[in-house]
Design a protein that fits this description.
single chain; 533 residues; MetI-like fold; globular
Length: 533
């Protein structure tokens, strides 16, 4: 289908044009307005704001943290991925579960745990008498973000390792390559797409993070952007910071696309790839268990134990049931409609991409993903600048927060819906049309029932991501609107760890539901592949 035909199709179908137009306007207009506000100043003022020592320091801190976290997650994720895919280590399924469970611990909760564990009055000092220096600054942010984000890299590397054809390794061995040379020249190049995909997720997460760097008092672009907004709100300088953060995100996306350009790793011969023969570890299996167990203890056991310890103090004095219930209701009242709205907006975009694939539909889909790639604080500031200038009545309303959640997390909704559409035969709609149904009626009766599972997954993904979201909530929530994330962060920022524990535990429970859904989806996909095979 040509671009022109795709555009004509969208014009005819108002029920497609309307949500697509809302997405394009919701993502592009606020960002465009941010550019307008930034360039309200003259060139000399802009130069003074951008070219200054403070900006260079923020750039160095942000890039240094991203590079450090990428190195840290690589050290953690790759050995675990190798142990669970290429060795005969017993209990690999449990180790895989342990490698995914840290996704149930939001970054700001992990930072809260590290702060509550270390120091003179930390958990370790009070329980076993071990006093560790209080973690803060770069080191604290590096450890918290590495422990919280390595599952993104682990899942991608694990999938890549499972997809490597062992015949290539055997051919290299017959040519005289040593085991190390085979690993370096054959296996590692095959892992590049998976590694870059996981690294992109880690990098975008670090660039957009606010909760961890704020609790650790480490100044990055996101933290400085919030301080500028909260302290004086110089909107021109804040807009410049947001645009610089966007530019840094664009560089990361460009690098990832450049490194993947022209890469071909598929088989060219006949036949199908088989699974690699597991490596016999022998006595080294104990080292494997020690590594995996230590990682699970640090990323899962420590958060659970620390929150449980501080929770016991709160239970002794009485849980704040009223505040906890109101915080849970606030989180649900914003996250639930945002999840529904995101799925509603994502459906026509995914439908166009699958049924009418073209340059125009690809562009629309990339713009939809732009809302997810934009760091949350920058996106929130763009919405603030736009609403204050165009529709001030919308500022700090629940509707604006719901829209921000939906536009930011919509990329998580597109994937499952698109997968469901690929499995829905288009001839079913054609048959319904031949029976006299309208286009919308044919879709509702023939295709929609086959999409329900994908829609449910999409709604669940966005709901649980919005439940954990901190930066968007912090800047856009109505006055007095205290969600679980806001209460966890605000109490932890004041070192009130006992008060923060109930809210952190509730977030971890809902996040664990997300992890369970993720694992169920992976198991279902694996089962389908086995049936096809």
């Amino acid at each position: 289908m040509t671009v022109a035909r795709a555009v004509r199709t969208m014009r005819v179908r108002w029920y497609v044009t309307l949500p697509v137009g809302i997405v394009l306007a919701g993502v592009l207009v606020p960002l465009g307005y941010l550019f307008v506000r930034a360039f309200e100043a003259d060139l000399q003022t802009l130069s003074d704001l951008v070219v200054r020592w403070q900006t260079l320091r923020l750039l160095g801190n942000t890039v240094g943290l991203a590079v450090g976290v990428l190195a840290g997650t690589t050290v953690l994720a790759f050995p675990l991925a190798w142990l669970t895919t290429r060795t005969n280590l017993p209990g690999r399924g449990v180790l895989t579960l342990m490698g995914v469970l840290p996704l149930a611990v939001p970054g700001y909760v992990m930072a809260y745990v590290l702060l509550a564990t270390t120091g003179q009055y930390g958990t370790l000092a009070q329980t076993i008498g071990v006093v560790l220096p209080r973690l803060s600054g770069y080191d604290g942010a590096l450890i918290a973000l590495s422990l919280g984000t390595y599952p993104y890299l682990f899942l991608n590397l694990r999938t890549a390792l499972l997809g490597v054809d062992p015949a290539l390794e055997e051919s290299a061995r017959t040519l005289g390559y040593s085991r190390w040379q085979v690993f370096w020249n054959v296996v590692l190049p095959q892992l590049r797409p998976g590694y870059l995909a996981g690294s992109l997720l880690v990098g975008l997460h670090v660039l957009g993070d606010f909760g961890v760097v704020s609790l650790m008092r480490f100044k990055t672009f996101s933290y400085a952007l919030y301080l500028q907004y909260a302290a004086s709100y110089d909107r021109i300088y804040a807009a410049c910071l947001a645009l610089m953060l966007l530019a840094l995100t664009g560089v990361v996306l460009f690098l990832e696309a450049s490194l993947l350009r022209g890469l071909l790793l598929h088989r060219t011969g006949s036949g199908t790839a088989r699974r690699a023969v597991p490596l016999e570890l022998g006595a080294w299996r104990w080292a494997g268990y020690a590594f995996a167990g230590g990682l699970a203890l640090a990323s899962v056991g420590l958060p659970m134990g620390t929150v449980g310890y501080w929770m016991s103090d709160t239970v002794a004095t009485g849980l704040p049931w009223g505040s906890l219930a109101s915080s849970l209701w606030a989180s649900v009242s914003a996250s639930a409609p945002a999840a529904g709205l995101a799925a509603l907006l994502a459906t026509p975009i995914a439908y166009l991409g699958v049924r009418y694939h073209s340059g125009a539909t690809q562009t629309i889909e990339r713009i939809a993903y732009l809302g997810y790639a934009t760091p949350p604080l920058a996106f929130a500031l763009a919405l603030i600048v736009f609403t204050l200038g165009a529709v001030p009545a919308v500022y700090q309303t629940l509707g604006l927060l719901v829209a921000a959640y939906a536009l930011h997390f919509m990329a998580e909704a597109i994937g499952p819906i698109r997968s469901a559409l690929y499995q829905a035969p288009p001839n079913l709609e054609e048959a319904a049309r031949s029976l006299g149904r309208s286009r919308l009626g044919a879709f509702a009766s023939a295709t929609f029932p086959l999409m329900r599972r994908g829609l449910l997954v999409s709604v669940a993904f966005v709901f649980l991501s919005a439940m954990k979201e901190l930066p968007l909530t912090l800047l856009l929530a109505p006055v007095g609107f205290g969600t679980l994330a806001l209460n966890t962060w605000s109490y932890a920022e004041e070192a009130m760890f006992g008060e923060a524990a109930p809210y952190a535990l509730t977030i971890m429970f809902f996040s664990a539901c997300f992890v369970g859904l993720l694992l169920m989806r992976e198991q279902a996909a694996t089962a389908r592949e086995k049936e096809v095979g």
